[in-house]
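Our preliminary data section would be incomplete without showing what the modeling component actually yields. Below, a chain of 312 amino acids is followed by its predicted structure, encoded as tokens that our downstream tools consume directly.
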Amino acid sequence: MGIAVHNFHDTKNGLPPIAIPGGSDRTGVTFWGLIYPFIEQGALYDLLMSKTDNANNRCQNTDFWGSAATPRLTQQERKMFNAVPICFCPSRRSIPEPYGDAANSNPADGPYFGPKGDYAVVYGPEVNTWPNWTRIPPQFGNTPGTSDSAQTQIDWYVGPIRVARLVSTNMGSWMPSDTMAWWEDGSSNQMLVGEKYIPPLYLNDCAYDGNSSDRGHIGDCSLLVMGSLNTFAGARSFRGGMGRDPNITADITNDTGTPPNPHWAGIHSGIGNFLFGDGSVRAISNTIPTGNNSLFSFLGIVNDGRTIGDIP
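Predicted structure:
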């Protein structure tokens, strides 16, 4: 993944965006789809572009993944999107079956927006309200929008990977917002991607019944979207902290006492693995202090002066 980020940067003259903005609470293709050509998935990228009209359409509509009567993807195509080896931790599981069935037309049966995965892009240190970090409005340049209070939270915009910049109102006009110069603390001090915490009880479980309490454990779907009240997508803020026990079988409460915030950490005992901007992968202890104004949250900020050397 680190090599893909660097190769994308060299080819596109900028960092891969966390997502292409596409509405007040929806987005287009995400980081994971945009790096396909750089992780030996060029054919899958071509398929994604053909199904989204070269990124002009969202890959989040109910027909995209198979909940509509006439889904945009066949079952075989869903399997292709779900079978990218780099998206799964081999210590946690083999490649699972994709969620979604063309015969299933009930949206309440769960996130129907795309493939599962074990990793998430770092999306800044802190977001106070659950939907705020999944609601990405269209914007031009790097200035946050002001159409609702959520868009005024500057914490959205201090993480290492930001939303794409649109040249016009056409989603297909996207360009990278930043070069590596955005990482003022230095590439070796910037977390980019980490392991998602998914309690074993909810592994491969994408079900969502409309109850907001479910948001505490939905973590497997979907990598290709960045916003919906139905799913935690392929990015996370540091609000949720680190999962302290990889074997816990129920929702866990983070340091702020609010279960709906998703956590980091994989299946490995005592650690969570994170990709840094220089391409290195480092294990972070799951006992690292988390929550507001913690070292863990500072490592999600590109220009606060904290370095990896600050980790005890």
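Residues 2-12 form the longest helix (11 residues). The two ends are 26 Å apart (CA to CA). Preliminary results of this kind motivate Aim 1 of the renewal.
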